Amino acid sequence: MLRVGLTGGIGAGKSAVARRLAEHGAVIIDADLLAREVVEPGTDGLAEIVEVFGAGVLTAEGTLDRPALGARVFGDESARRRLEKIIHPRVRERAAELTRSAAPGSIVVNDVPLLVEAGLASSYHLVIVVLADREVRLERLTRLRGMTPAEAAARIDAQTDDAGRRAAADVLLINDDDLDSLRSGVDGVWYARLVEFERNLRSGRSAVRSLDSRIVESDPEWPLAAARLIARLRHGLGDRFDIQHVGPTAVPGPPARDVIDLMIGVRTLDEADGLAGRLGELGFPVRLGEWSDRAGQHGGAWPKRLHGCADPGYRVDLHLRVAGSPGWRLALLLRDYLRAVPAAVGRADVAQAADDWAASTGWQPS
């Protein structure tokens, strides 16, 4: 199933996005609701909160007194972190249970207010971020939630800034206008991105062929997209493999094919073949066929494995090359050389020039 993370700052409109996705058939897992569920009377979560913060955080009926607890942790970083260590693991466990119980083929949307702050973005196939202008959010919080301007500002400032959210976003929804505009944006994401992504993930195919790409102006989004995809791969594969952004989009400045080239260094091609199933689950299905590199002056063809991306929002070539092979070395060398010597972009003898540069500078693969 397709696992989607949904987040946004307080007052940005995340809940409205979740409701619209639910209308389309998404399975919504609301972290706020789960955070209440795991501290209901009789749970070990509530028992641990009382043990740490005292009986003063309970009402006369024995339920959690949220305003009292909030007063204890607001503005106290260490107290807040102690509370998070109690609640967050239980919420993640419960969310995992609900995800496993969803029907095959579901699009499961995890509505998580602190997704970025908790470092959870890489655990999803795709992350949707809802943003709104600060003044719009302040007005919503005071008008719709009854907060004072000072309370609203404090709640906004207690969360991560929009720059951090933008960096985590595979999909960005701006909610500065009316509700109809937001719903229209959600509809577009559902039909153009999520439905196709889920279908591709289930059938084990890439969304688009990288060969269909074209030369475009350098895009500052390329390294951010590569970082998100690499984080997703590292989360799914663990720390055993070196994963890097290579190819033209890894060199800032010059025009390039609109393709994110990623590379995993493996010990053998058998090891690469053993990763095919897991990479498919992560959204990077194998591209069938025989693939190899022509490694410059070294001559010969050096076999590799190639995967694509099931997400229609990205054009990706994921190369699995044997670490230390000429093809692996050349991919890293060309990237580093062109970063260091931008004027060499487009040279016919760029591979030879890169080798000469490596010899003169003492460059070694990172």
UniProtKB/TrEMBL annotation:
<dbReference type="InterPro" id="IPR001977">
    <property type="entry name" value="Depp_CoAkinase"/>
</dbReference>
<comment type="similarity">
    <text>In the C-terminal section; belongs to the UPF0157 (GrpB) family.</text>
</comment>
<keyword id="KW-0808">Transferase</keyword>
<dbReference type="Pfam" id="PF04229">
    <property type="entry name" value="GrpB"/>
</dbReference>
<keyword id="KW-0173">Coenzyme A biosynthesis</keyword>
<dbReference type="Pfam" id="PF01121">
    <property type="entry name" value="CoaE"/>
</dbReference>
<protein>
    <recommendedName>
        <fullName>Dephospho-CoA kinase</fullName>
        <ecNumber>2.7.1.24</ecNumber>
    </recommendedName>
</protein>
<dbReference type="InterPro" id="IPR027417">
    <property type="entry name" value="P-loop_NTPase"/>
</dbReference>
<keyword id="KW-0963">Cytoplasm</keyword>
<comment type="pathway">
    <text>Cofactor biosynthesis; coenzyme A biosynthesis; CoA from (R)-pantothenate: step 5/5.</text>
</comment>
<keyword id="KW-0418">Kinase</keyword>
<keyword id="KW-0067">ATP-binding</keyword>
<feature type="binding site">
    <location>
        <begin position="11"/>
        <end position="16"/>
    </location>
    <ligand>
        <name>ATP</name>
    </ligand>
</feature>
<comment type="similarity">
    <text>Belongs to the CoaE family.</text>
</comment>
<comment type="function">
    <text>Catalyzes the phosphorylation of the 3'-hydroxyl group of dephosphocoenzyme A to form coenzyme A.</text>
</comment>
<dbReference type="GO" id="GO:0004140">
    <property type="term" value="F:dephospho-CoA kinase activity"/>
</dbReference>
<dbReference type="InterPro" id="IPR043519">
    <property type="entry name" value="NT_sf"/>
</dbReference>
<keyword id="KW-0547">Nucleotide-binding</keyword>
<dbReference type="InterPro" id="IPR007344">
    <property type="entry name" value="GrpB/CoaE"/>
</dbReference>
